[in-house]
Design brief:
About 25% of the residues lie in helices and about 35% in strands. With about 180 residues, the protein is an alpha+beta fold. It has a single domain (about 40-180), classed as Sandwich (ATP Synthase, domain 1). Strands 1, 2, 3, 4, 5, 6, 7 and 8 form an eight-stranded mixed β-sheet that branches. Helix 3 (about 135-145) packs antiparallel against helix 4 (about 155-180).
């Protein structure tokens, strides 16, 4: 019996430098078309102690954590994080009713949790950007800049941190109000 060697028509790539990475030869170039992404959206909720501001499907969220911004896309690994002061940006999917859109919220403190395709933002203080006015934000900033440490304060460092936080929050709120001026979904 004569065995003939079959000609290998695959490109001569080694595993690591093959387009698609080292697993491309194993799973093949069409594997990504056979296994589409499970979901294109996730549920996003924004809640404060006094109100529920948002409960809708989203495609992306940029979250102001205490140590910087991080983004959330559908299928993100579970996470729990402490919120800081900043702008929360949520992007919505296109729908039959409209072309998606983006909303911004002022966030000050709280926690965020992403788990099982649901993003829950429990904020100490939050407000939609379209409800913020430049005049109110400027008034709040002036009030924060006029804060002083009480002369009889026992913990001066704590008061200094609180005043710095209030000033930072007021500046952030003013920036969000100015950038949202005249914008809506």
């Amino acid at each position: 019996m004569v065995h003939h060697a079959r000609e290998d028509t695959r490109p001569a790539y080694s595993g690591g430098d093959r387009p698609g990475g080292p697993w491309a030869r194993t799973i093949g170039p069409t594997a990504f078309r056979r296994f589409p992404l499970a979901k294109k959206t996730f549920r996003c909720r924004v809640v404060t102690p006094t109100a529920k501001l948002l409960d809708d499907q989203a495609t992306y969220a940029s979250i102001p954590a205490w140590d910087g911004l991080f983004g959330v896309l559908p299928g993100r690994s579970p996470i729990v994080a402490k919120l800081g002061v900043g702008a929360l940006t949520v992007e919505f999917p296109d729908s039959a009713a409209g072309g998606g859109g983006r909303r911004t919220y002022f966030i000050d403190g709280g926690f965020v949790r992403m788990s099982s395709g649901e993003l829950t933002i429990l904020a100490d203080r939050a407000a939609p950007a379209e409800q913020l006015t430049v005049t109110d934000a400027e008034t709040e900033l002036k009030a924060a800049e006029n804060l002083k440490i009480p002369t009889d304060a026992k913990d001066r460092a704590r008061w200094a941190n609180r005043i710095a936080h209030e000033r930072h929050a007021a500046r952030t709120k003013l920036r969000i109000a100015q950038s949202a001026k005249g914008k809506a979904i």
